[in-house]
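note to self — DONT lose this again. spent like an hour looking for the file last time. sequence + predicted structure for the chain T wanted, 200 res
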Amino acid sequence: MSEIYNARGLPCPKPVLMAKNFLDEGKNDFSILVSGSDQAENVMKFAHSRKHSAEIVETNEGFRVSIGAPAPSMKHVEKSVQKQEKTISSPVVMTITSCEMGFGDKVLGEVLIRALFHTLTEMDESPDTIVFYNGGVRLTVEGSPVLEDLSALEKNGVELLVCGTCLGHFGLTDSLAVGRVSNMYAIAETLFSAGKLVTV
């Protein structure tokens, strides 16, 4: 029987880091119990990124993520990722920390941030990834003035990572309209792998 490790109540990204440590130790058959479905998704996505099988089961105690040995079906994904890594040598990552651009005047800042994202849709080059955290996550939820432009960027291949802890803090988890919920481990990994980092 696989071991079950309790990560309920632990803040992001500790459940993901727990899974990472166990996988680094060579464990291939264990489960992690977390409080919320978003944390469970983060742990499962991390396991998949390491080419391990993983599934989520909701229990009376919380959400259990069962992680197993590397999945044979993930081999083609690994080859695809390796091929992609060879073609992308210097990813450009942009970070958005506020729903305004710059400091000094709030109204002007809102005008500038709208202009920025619209301009990005018109440019020949665009970031590989845009990371939204703190107040920046407000731009990715329902009612945001830049949703149309963000959707266009995403359709053109720009990855939009949205801090799940930040969405939860502002009570916006259920209002996400574009991009995908991410965790601090994945965000930190993205920032450190950037060939060029642009902070707005």
